[in-house]
Amino acid sequence: MEARLTQASNKQLSKLIVSNLAGTLGSAILTFVIGLIILKHSDSALYFGLSQAVGPVVSLLLLPFTGSLVDKYNKQHIIVWAQGLSILALGLFAGFIATTHLTSNLLMVFLLLIALKISDQFLSTASMAAATNLVVEEHVHKLKSIEQTIGALSQFIAPIAGVALYAMLPLEYLVGLEIVLEALVIIITLTLNFRLVAHHQADAQASLFSLFKEGLDFIKAHKKFQHTVALFMFINLLITGVIVGMPYVQVKVLHFSDYYYGLTEAALSLGFILVGIYLSARKAIRYPLLLAWKSILTIGGLVALMGAVLWLPLSTDAFFAFFLLISLIFGGISTAVNIPMMTWVTQIVPTHYQGRIFNIVSTASQLLSPLGMVIFSLGFDYLPASLLFLLCGAIMIGVTAYWPRFYKVNILSNQLED
Fold it and tell me: How much is the pTM?
């Protein structure tokens, strides 16, 4: 019986990989092309900034509903309906372009972005919450690792493929291609068994707001989970400084050529991909909290090291070699934090709470990113980059090192209650 269950789980894992690759790569290419359209057809950077704010705003507005609906209703149906919304929005957008021949109508572009974000919010939440129903426990780690790798690979390929396809094909054809990929995801989803591994379901009679409140109460009741999530949200806020600062330093301070800058960006994605492949091929990490803790300390050290190295009178080639190596390591270690933590959360949060918990955590994280972008964009305009990197690294190391002792979190235990 167990062997048959494992075999069925393997089949579902293969289908999920194909579905994730089709959906993620297609979405990444289309998102890149939409960004190009906004940049090309608007005179102000404000429009591009607004396009980046669509995600956090939609997530916040849907916060009380998304997770509760996912936990209350059939996750397979929610994924299919979410994909259907994407196809409808893309079809209307393609029809508008074909009939009016206007690719620069920013109102239609923003309406498309909003519809796609609503769809993605339900799709991603339902997919994450359904993982433990779709595959056996020992395959959850592999699934999360592969999803992370596909995401990194898509971000690596999207700019190259997006530019090439946008130059060769009319926009409505590109949108049509995305519709085909979305339809493929629906077909694969309909063949999956969402009850392969049985788990307790949320109360179908409860209201959405009472379910949402239960999700908040769950986080409040489990201090270890609460403090762990809080730490990672704070670290993500500091990481925004690196996301803003590394391109700024390379282009504006060190005056890297486009070729050098492109290689360092590629090295970051390569780090994501290589460690993602490694983690997907090995068994689940025994102590994910311990690995995450050590990895964050290492990231803090790397950020501080960047600040220190910027004080040195090195040549452009020497700086390039340093940032190339740092980008590769940074990408790899970031993946070494994310994948074990996602696996841990998936396994320790009861299935009937996962939709709400994943949604609350992801929305909170998204809300901090724009704040970090504003803070560090201003910071790099008025303060030396070396000083900001040193401060970020030192704060990251200090907070992370003291965290287990201050909050009495046992990082050698994977249980919610020690």
Answer: 0.74
SS3 145: helix
409 vs 358: CA distance, rounded Å: 21
Residue 293's identity, in one-letter code, is W
316 touches 254 (CB < 8 A) = yes
pLDDT digits (tens, 9 = 90+) for 266-320: 788 888 888 888 877 777 777 888 888 888 899 999 999 999 999 988 898 999 9
Tokens representing residue 366 in the block: 């998204």
Cα of 46 vs its chain's centroid, Å: 24
Closest to 194 in 3D by CA, of 258, 133, 281: 133
Residue 321 has pLDDT above 90, yes or no: yes
For residue 296, give both structure tokens: 């964050």
Find, among 268, 375, 274, the residue nearest to 324 by Cα: 268
Buried/exposed code over 175-210 (b: 16+ C-beta within 10 A; e: otherwise): bebbbebbebbbebbeebebebbeeeebeeeeeeee
Whole-angstrom Cα distance, residue 340 to residue 348?
12
